[in-house]
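Hi all, long-time lurker, first post. I run a small reading group and we've been trying to get comfortable going from sequence to structure in the token notation. Rather than ask abstract questions, I figured I'd post a concrete chain and ask someone more experienced to write out its structure so we can walk through it together at our next meeting. Sequence below, copied exactly:
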Amino acid sequence: MAKKKIEDILPHRVLTDKEDLFCYGFDASSTEGIPSAVVKPINTQEVAEVAAFANEYETPIVPRGAGTGMTGGAVPMEDVIVLSLEGMNRILEIDTQNMVAVVEPGVINGHLQEKLEEKGLFYPPDPASLKFCTLGGNVAENAGGPRAIKYGVTKDYVLGLETVLPDGRVIMTGGKTYKGVVGYDLTRLLVGSEGTLGIITKMFLKILPMPEEVVTLLCTYDSLDAAARTVSAITTSPIIPRTLEIMDRESIIAVEKYKNFGLPQDAEALLLIEVDGSHASVSIDAEKIASICTSNKGNVSIADDTYAKQRLWDARRAISPALYKISPTKINEDIVVPRSRVADILKTLRDIAERSNLTIANFGHAGDGNIHVNVMTDKNNPEKHKKAVSAIKEIFEATLKLGGTISGEHGVGITKKQYIDMELSDTNIELMKAIKRVFDPKGILNPGKIFP
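-- Answer (accepted) --
Happy to help. Here is the structure in token form:
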């Protein structure tokens, strides 16, 4: 019998034209490839059929959401099928009794946020790309965001998953209950597995009531060290802010060149801080936070209205595209250090930049120690790019020395897999590979990712 073609499985959902294949060959990292086909299923049964076909003919498949990942997790290697889940984009249920949203993987994070806000609810994980990233991708990468300091990251909100295994079988882990300890926690294992263990087709997400009030503060500094000291002072205070973001001078200047948001370009650093809660508590907490900032030589202002708040957040979320416009081949990493070591890592990053004669722009979630490090380089300048790559390894070494990790929310994918043995022992890596073999014995699901 002649070998089946993927077109025989889903004849109206397969793309093979060169132009279409190109569009699904890259993500927000600097890596790219060309798939042999793109399949666009619209339900779990179709995903299972594609997986069963791929398993039978040992054809690699790469699950894909919106392609906003920073480490090449959705980039196809040679001769693979990209399984685009963008068509599975329904919010199936918003259960206000149990405070659970049931969604498909192609739902845009920001779209769910909007629907929940209409009901006075919210879903805390809010990556910078929330206006276009998908929840399936968020779960696959265990995405975080500015609100993680108070509310946690994606894994803290995933109660259950429907997942298609690489051979086409469908499993359900967890559900609508907030507790469950029957057997191993496969839900937590699948979250952050970067599409290497299964294809997520349905998610049960914990949702929360919308806080009564949010106060947004902007605090500017003449010294990066003073900003870092403020971060430490806030995180050791009794108040847990909703967000605690930092931008250094290079990030501020880049954003203002990109679009005039009105940020002070003469500042060495700024903190974007929010507190939320009841009407009675928020103003008191905001005053205490402002006092901590001013005692560390910060200049504090409070956003007066919704427009002012939104403008500040638009500026924060514009950093990555602003830096990309300056240097399309910049190297973007998301290191994490213990919160008490934020000042130490920022000083180290500044030292590395000066010694290497490189511009390194830093911003991110200072409240949980997660700094996005952007080494501005040019691949067309081999000498400069070699310096940048060398600086990345030095940054990772410094991060690990401070008790940190080389990735907080971007995952490993392609771009970081050569560095994982800096952090993980041989035993850890072998255990992870063994788990991969149990789920995917033929190695067809998102091959070439995570492990070198």
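A couple of things your group might point at:
The mean pLDDT is 96.
The radius of gyration is 22 Å.
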